[in-house]
Structures are given as structure tokens and as C-alpha cells.
Amino acid sequence: MNAPVHPHALSTAELQALDSAHFLHPFTDHKGLAAKGARVITHADDIYVWDSEGKKILDAMSGLWCVNAGYGRKELADVAHAQMMKLPFYNSFFQTTNEPAVRLAARLAELAPAVDGRRFQHVFFSSSGSESNDTNVRMARRYWDLMGQPQRKVIISRHNAYHGSTMAGASLGGMSAMHAQGDLPIPNITHIQQPYYYELAEPGESQDAFGLRAARWLEDKILEIGPEKVAAFIAEPVQGAGGVIIPPATYWPEIQRIVDKYGILLISDEVICAFGRLGHWFAYEKFGYKPDLVTFAKAVTSGYIPLGGVLVGDRVAQVLIDKGGEFNHGYTYSGHPVACAVALANLDIMERENLPGRVRDDVGPYLAEVFEQFKSHPLVGDAETCGFVAGLVLVQDKATRKAFPEDWAVGMMCRAHCFGNGLVMRAVGDRMIIAPPLTMTRAQIDEMAVLIKKALDLTLQELQ
Ligand code: PLP
């Protein structure tokens, strides 16, 4: 038998050796990782994390877009502890329920704004964004079966979208690197181009004109497939993992016109964008469209414990409930009492500290001002923010928008300089992106800006 492992007694090198011997990480080249060793994160507070060598790092990615309320929230730990002592688990399959899940479903129904009288009165719980999007596929197809239109199977998504890593989630996503492994996408999922103005606009085309043109790629696709075969369109309000792609103002209203015209379901994947990230509880409110299903996860608990789900609008819920009988779908942890209790306490914090409001009216606009200044940096072709997500695109030639050769990996170079200076910033190709905790102060935005500027300068130096 192997000797028992006592993590607190292990040095960084020992942890790294055990890590590379046993832990298969998500989205990781293990040979590459083994050669240099994983960074071991030991603790966190506010907007900072520390590694096992004592280095303090400003976490401008909120973990993985999830720690919206910031680190070190003792009350979330206290709530989890109390709930574990009272009822650590019970399932919600066999006509049973539990108080935290009931309260959270009701709270989310209350928080989700109705648009034109379309309400979200029901919630289906899971443990992640990926599972929730699998639920969406099952639900959308079940809806159309019950509506007597079983031929409506196709779900349209977008290139470079990220909707998770399960078979359905990765298929809904539009990441070619993911599709290249494991025969994806699964049948009846197809993609249109993303509304990425900087890369796809014609010379001289306005943002508004491009937004309309990009939305009409959906109509072209619906007509190509046959509207009678299309079940749903799924999209992130702002594409996150694809590089913080913010659609022009004309995009979402035109998408709404198109889904209404053909009667297809609209799924808003708000795994990143909900819970204050864009300055609202839910992002569809910001853009004014009317989804039928809304995917959530991550910040519903500020990442303190896994929880995800789908807000189910009345259009779908009424059919499932009135005509559907048993819906043969669910997860062991659907409505997990501890996760739901933590979510309730997290929503309390967000409400008490008005986190969505401060992003909308205070720190969000300030972040936009700060990012505007990066436009004058010689490496930066464009800088954009939307609430508390932001992106910088690094280019070889600002005037012509010429990109760097892919194999120079300039984004990764810049990311390494960020880490070197104590900043987590993510690189998606040559787009440098952030999604900081919503608690970040103006002074901390300034502190982050200094670190970003330093990383940009060092990247420029390395390229010369
Ligand atoms: N949908 C979106 C928009 C996401 O950004 C993510 C994760 O980043 C997911 C779904 C998948 O969520 P999870 O990793 O919790 O399965």
C-alpha cells in the first residue's frame, strides 16, 4: 500500500511531482506541465491568491470567471458548515425536496426580470454549466416533441462559443480544437459565425451595420436548414472564453426578431454573464432580449461550491408540466442543499453590497475609462469592456489590424509576463482578457492597470 499523503507537509516540488504523477488536469498538455511543474495555489483573500512560494497574485479572472463576490467570505463557509450539519444531502428525485433548494428556486424566479410579460417561474438545478447546457438540449427537444413538432431537432450555436465540455456542451460550443477530438459535434448541432467586429467587419463598415449583418447569419442558417427543423439558438450574451467578444448594439434586437419570426427557442447561456458580471442580475436584461431558457452556474455561488442550472421560461415550463408527464432527466446533485444554501447566502452578499449596481454605475464605467487608455499602447489594436469583462487585442500593425503570426504566441508571451508580475490575465489567441471580482475597488483597478501596462511593455520589449 502507498504511504498516506499529508498535503500540509509537502514542499512545492513534492506537490508538483505528485501532481504530474496523478492529476490529469482539464485542458492541459501534461508533458508540457510536467516539465515545468504546476503553480500550487494555497490560499486567497479579497481579489488576491497566493502560491506555495508565497507569491501574491492579483486574480483578474475571478478564478475561472466565478468568484464574483471575492475570496475570503467567511459567511459562505459558515452557511455551508451549518447546512452540512443539518442536512448535508438529500435527493430531489422521488417527490422529495429540501428547504434551501426551494428557497433558491423561488429567489431566482424573483430575481430574473420578466421581459414583455415573459417570466421565469421555474428552475432546473445541476452542478455545472456543462450539465445545464445538456439539460437545455434535452428540454428543448422534449418541448418540441410535446408540441407535436418532433422534427425540430437542430440547435444553432456560434463559432468560438463556449458552452461546456460534456459531449453536448462541447458540441454546442464552437471551439474547433474541441471538435477535433472525439468526433464532435454530435448530430443536429450547427454553428454560425460570431459577431466579432474587429476581425470580421468589412473595411468602413459601422458597428451597427455589422451587428445586423452578423445577426442575419442566423436567418441564413435557419433558411438553409429549414425553419421547421430548428429547435433553438443558443448564445452567450457576450462571448467569454472565446475572447470577450462584445456584440454591437444592433445584434441582439435583430436576433430576437429572427427567433420570433421562425418561432425557435432562444437559449441565453449566462454562465459567465449573470450575477452582476455585466451590471445586471441577468444579462438578457441588459441587452433587452427575451430568452426561453437561461443557463447559469459559476457565480451563483461565487464559485465557493459547484452549482448550476437553467431558468425555465413559462413558454417551455408550462408545456413540460401540463403535457409532459415525467421528464426523464436529472442529476444526483440537482438541488443539493449545501450548494443551494451557499448560493442563497452569496445572493444575500451581492444584494447587500449592490454588486450588480456598482458594476453598472461605478466601477464598470471606471474600468472602461482605464481600458480606453490602453488603446494608445503600440501593441494594442483595440480595447473593449462591458461591465466587468474586458479585452485587449494585441496586433502587429494597428493601422491595418494585422495580426501577429500565430506561432509567435504573443498572447501567451504576454500572459507569462502578467504571471511574472503577479497578475492573472487570460490569453485567448492574442486577445488578453479579464473578468475581475465585482468587489474590486477603483484603487485596485488602478493597481491592476499598472500590472497590465508593465506586461504589455515587457511583451513589446521581448518582440523587439
Ligand atoms: N457556458 C459558458 C458560457 C461558460 O463560460 C462555461 C465555462 O466557462 C460553461 C458553459 C461550462 O461550465 P462548467 O465548466 O461549469 O461546466
TrEMBL record:
SUPFAM superfamilies: PLP-dependent transferases. Its cofactor is pyridoxal 5'-phosphate. InterPro entries: Aminotrans_3, Aminotrans_3_PPA_site, PyrdxlP-dep_Trfase, PyrdxlP-dep_Trfase_major, PyrdxlP-dep_Trfase_small. GO terms for biological process: biotin biosynthetic process; gamma-aminobutyric acid metabolic process. It comes from the Bacteria. GO terms for molecular function: adenosylmethionine-8-amino-7-oxononanoate transaminase activity; pyridoxal phosphate binding. PROSITE patterns: AA_TRANSFER_CLASS_3. Keywords: Aminotransferase, Pyridoxal phosphate, Transferase. Belongs to the class-III pyridoxal-phosphate-dependent aminotransferase family. This is Putrescine aminotransferase. The lineage of its organism: Bacteria, Pseudomonadati, Pseudomonadota, Betaproteobacteria, Burkholderiales.
